[in-house]
Amino acid sequence: MKKLVSIMVTMVMMTVMLTGCGGSSSDSVIKFGTNAEFPPFEYVTAAGVLGEFDGIDMAIAKEIGVQTGMEVTMENMEFDSLLIAIENGQIDAAIAGMTIDPERAESVDFSHPYYTATQVMIVDQNSDIKTAADMADKKIVVIQGYTGELCVQDLGYDYEAFKKGTEAILELNNGKCDVVVLDSATAKKYVKDNPNLKIVEDPSAFEAEEYGIAVKKGNTELLNKINTVIDKMLADGTISELGAKYSENE
Ligand code: ARG
């Protein structure tokens, strides 16, 4: 009995040592974080490309793993929490249709841009909103912490912020608001699922935005690896193929 206990203690110690001195294990894993509430870039599904996660970003993250030979994990969290999670080391990188903006770039480093989008207005088919200025006296909904919120703030209009795109669309469908301001590709996806809605664009009010992958400030080793894969996927057309695939099928 004594012997058995000591074998077990030894085994436990070995396990602790194996995982404890694991520079090796953390070096070969990229811990990604996302907010899987943003089709066609990331959403939860029964069988996705990365476990329960699917979308353009998830396919890119998977390919980063393949090309670098590193294991990839994906953690789903609130969009608002992603930058903090990078800063405190909970995740190595955020891939979340995240717009590269100067304010965010003060706390994290961004990869090369891999997708261009713009804010659009989602309204009822019968809405009379034709430009951003038409929102002045309307009930506006945005998603908390998204660049769309900043745009509406800049325009100086009042708004209500929801946590998820789906909640905002529900509010619109229930007639409780007049317009949802959201990224173009995600807006298209929602409008496709809700034929009573339409998209209104106003390029003079909403500038183009570029999505990038965020890493901890100064983590050039990981950033270089990510950039190499992004550059390749842009050059060989993989990213535009993914864009087409996920916009059509989902
Ligand atoms: N592009 C917008 C931003 O950076 C929205 C991104 C939302 N992404 C998400 N995975 N929920 O603020």
What does this structure look like?
The protein has helices spanning 2-20, 23-27, 56-68, 82-87, 147-155, 165-173, 184-193, 220-235, 238-249; strands spanning 29-34, 37-38, 42-44, 53-54, 71-76, 93-94, 108-110, 115-124, 140-143, 160-162, 179-183, 197-200, 208-211, 214-216. The N and C termini lie far apart (59 Å). Helices cover 40% and strands 23% of the residues. Strand 9 (140-143), helix 5 (147-155) and strand 10 form a beta-alpha-beta unit. It contains nine helices and 14 strands. It has two domains: 2-115 and 210-249, D-Maltodextrin-Binding Protein, domain 2, CATH 3.40.190; 119-200, D-Maltodextrin-Binding Protein, domain 2. Helix 3 (56-68) packs across helix 8 (220-235). The protein is of the alpha/beta class. The protein binds arginine (ARG). Arginine is lined by residues 34-35, 37-38, 42, 79, 96-99, 146-147, 183.
How much of the sequence is in beta strands? Answer: 15-25%
The secondary-structure element order is HHEEEEHEHEEEEHEHEHEEEHH
Please report the first level of CATH classification, the CATH class of the largest domain.
Answer: Alpha Beta
The CATH architecture assignment of the largest domain turns out to be 3-Layer(aba) Sandwich
Secondary structure: elements and pairs:
Blueprint: H1 2-20, H2 23-27, E1 29-34, E2 37-38, E3 42-44, E4 53-54, H3 56-68, E5 71-76, H4 82-87, E6 93-94, E7 108-110, E8 115-124, E9 140-143, H5 147-155, E10 160-162, H6 165-173, E11 179-183, H7 184-193, E12 197-200, E13 208-211, E14 214-216, H8 220-235, H9 238-249
Parallel strand pairs: 1-5, 1-6, 9-10, 9-11
Antiparallel strand pairs: 2-3, 3-4, 6-14, 7-14, 8-11, 8-12, 8-13
Helix pairs in contact: 3-8
The protein binds arginine.
